[in-house]
Design a protein that fits this description.
heterodimer, A: 265 residues, mainly alpha, two-stranded antiparallel ribbon, 11 helices, 2 strands, B: 333 residues, Rossmann fold, 2 domains, six-stranded mixed sheet, 13 strands, globular, binds adenosine-5'-diphosphate, binds magnesium ion, membrane (chain A), ABC-2_transporter-like (chain A), ABC-2 family transporter protein (chain A)
């Protein structure tokens, strides 16, 4: 299969989601409620205080909107589907075709998330921003860097989710891998509480783990909490993490393929 | 002409860690390297030429799926050499995949949520099929397999028979040189089975596509495959024409006559009584040439005959008879 043909999977994933258009409304409703709830919590926390550790309430509201709906990539269904395909051995049907399975997953999930971003999370972000106000990026350069971080955020989440799903092959249980990942992500990505409000030792550790590039760093860069050199440095570190995870994924996939082909699963 | 597929002493042994029962056993098996070896395929040799249709027959667990997986490149043989289209399949998985079509009766390759047409279109990309040829093939397959009415329906809404026809069509869109089918008729009703069999026979005849299909249903072989490879317990029992097997084994077709009331003993010159339940009597037809009309003619009217059933022998019975007659089968391997 030619590389130029893979985007066909993106288009197909996108259009097949149109068949479940009615899920869009419940998805939007859930996101709206969650986002407003977080904003209410932070508003309560800021009562009687202008700034906390140099962060203002408008900063936090903006953080919630970006880290919340916008960079909160939904991978529940994806992990379940890939995990099932791997556990039941259906994944061998992909070995029968002249294609690279992880590449197929990449382009497929790109279509899924593009659909969700355009139909659910982006509209929710706009609605909330219009309702309560959204700060502009700290500077034009921060805004541009944010766009790069946004791509890194999605790619990082794709890799983390795919690696999690592949664990199904070795664990061979109906263990709820997606719940496991959601628990980790809630804390380590900074989607709920930004790293700057965490105890210093915890923030130091999480600041170097790949999860922080999904929600925390992109939002912090948008707000200008990292100066331009620091933001560029962390973008580079994020890219090193991406490369590392691609390496791990490639290695795991070849181990898995080898075991499927030699031991028959 | 050199064969398109050749297997020489091919074997596959699965290693399974011996599981012990109980918690202590589970602990023990963490440390023990105690394996059970399962010989799923055991020293099998055959050669298949381009354009042949070969039925790979055997009871459950005989090693049919394992053999198909090795020929399609998703499983490595543990012994012997296997060559498909001049290549070792598992070592050239991608190249091999582009030139073969595979259908697994138990495993769908269609995209569950998409209309059938969209799954087909994805295959156009995967196999890089030129648009004109794709359109031609789609038209031909839609007509032949009678798929027009459900081409735009999502796969999850299809009946098993419709889905299987779509699976077969999908495997043929890229004009594969060989079509492998693992139990393509399993679970289908009589009408759907018939449609699939007729089509496979046709595609083999008209397009010259080489067909290898596994089954435990002799009728599949009868209608599609002049040649039969019979396996049991991983080993090859017979390789040749179905007629030759039939001739050497006898027909073994089973006849059941059901009467309104017990007519008393009934003897037939063309069939042997195997069981007498009074109102129901079971026979085995003596040879291939006996027809149902012969039997009914001999029986005549006036017995209060209610129902007649004529059944092909099932695979277990064929194999049992095969072992019994083995000394008589001089030409069998
Ligand atoms: N991956 C595997 N690991 C261990 N044993 C296997 C594996 N696949 C098949 N077997 C065993 O090999 C034998 C042949 O299986 P299979 O080829 O599926 O038979 P068939 O398709 O003829 O029913 C069976 O005993 C089956 O349990
Ligand atoms: Mg099988």
């Amino acid at each position: 299969m030619k590389l130029s043909a893979y985007p066909a999977f993106t288009a197909t994933a996108f259009t097949s989601r149109l068949a479940y258009r009615n899920q869009v409304w419940s998805g939007m409703f859930g996101e709206l409620v969650a986002t407003f709830a977080f904003i209410a919590v932070w508003t309560a926390a800021f009562v009687g205080r202008g700034t906390v550790d140099g962060v203002t309430l408008p900063d936090m509201v903006t953080y919630v909107i970006i880290a919340g709906p916008l960079l909160n990539w939904n991978t529940t269904r994806y992990i379940r589907e890939v995990g099932d395909a791997i556990r039941t051995g259906d994944v061998t049907t992909f070995l029968l075709k002249p294609l690279h399975y992880p590449a197929l997953l990449f382009f497929n999930q790109l279509g899924n998330n593009a659909f969700e971003q355009l139909s659910i999370t982006l509209p929710v972000a706009v609605i909330v921003a219009l309702a309560v106000g959204l700060l502009p990026p700290a500077s034009v350069a921060h805004g541009l860097l944010f766009l790069a971080y946004w791509v890194v955020s999605w790619s990082m989440m794709f890799l983390i989710a795919t690696l999690t799903a592949m664990l199904a092959f070795w664990l061979l249980t109906a263990f709820a891998l997606d719940w496991f990942l959601r628990g980790i992500m809630a804390v380590a990505s900074g989607a709920v509480v930004p790293l700057w409000f965490m105890p210093a030792p915890l923030a130091a550790i999480l600041g170097y783990l790949p999860f922080a590039w999904v929600s925390y760093y992109p939002s912090a860069v948008y707000l200008g909490k990292l100066d331009l050199p620091a933001a560029s440095l962390h973008l580079a570190i994020g890219c090193i993490w991406l490369a590392t995870l691609v390496g791990i994924l490639t290695w795991l996939w070849s181990r898995m393929r080898h075991r499927l082909i030699v031991q028959g699963g | 002409m050199s064969p398109i597929i050749s297997a020489t002493g091919v074997g596959k042994t699965f290693r399974q860690l011996k599981r012990q029962s109980g918690f202590g056993g589970a602990l023990k098996s963490l440390f023990s390297r105690d394996y059970t070896d399962i010989r799923a395929v055991d020293g099998i040799s055959f050669a298949i030429n381009a354009g042949e249709a070969v039925g790979y027959l055997g009871p459950n667990g005989a090693g049919k799926s394992t053999m198909i997986k090795m020929m399609t490149g998703i499983l490595t043989p543990s012994a012997g050499t296997l060559s498909v289209l001049g290549r070792e399949p598992h070592a050239h998985r991608m190249t091999n995949a582009a030139e073969i079509g595979v259908v697994f009766g138990q495993r769908s390759q269609l995209w569950w949520d998409l209309p059938v047409r969209d799954s087909f279109d994805l295959n156009r990309h995967i196999y890089d099929i030129p648009p004109a040829r794709f359109a031609d093939n789609l038209r031909y397959l839609t007509a032949m397999l009678d798929m027009a009415s459900y081409l735009d329906r999502p796969v999850r809404q299809l009946s098993l028979g419709q889905r299987m026809r779509a699976e077969i069509a999908m495997a043929l869109l890229h004009d594969p040189k060989i079509l492998f089918l693992d139990e393509p008729t399993i679970g289908l009703d009589v009408v759907a089975k018939d449609a699939v069999r007729k089509f496979l026979a046709e595609i083999n005849r008209e397009r010259g596509t080489t067909i290898i299909l596994t089954t435990h249903d002799l009728v599949d072989i009868e209608e599609i495959c002049p040649r039969l490879i019979m396996v049991d317990d991983g080993k090859l029992l017979f390789d040749g024409e179905l007629n030759r097997l039939r001739a050497s084994l006898g027909s073994r077709r089973r006849l059941t006559l059901e009467f309104a009331t017990d007519p008393g003993p009934i003897a037939l010159t063309t069939a042997t009584l195997t069981a007498d339940e009074g109102a129901a009597k079971h026979f085995v037809l003596d040879d291939e040439t006996v027809s149902l009309l012969d039997v009914l003619g001999e029986l005549g009217r006036g017995h209060g005959l209610k129902d007649v059933k004529l059944e092909e022998p099932d695979i277990e019975e064929v194999i049992r008879t095969f072992y019994l007659n083995k000394p008589n089968l001089a030409s069998a391997p």
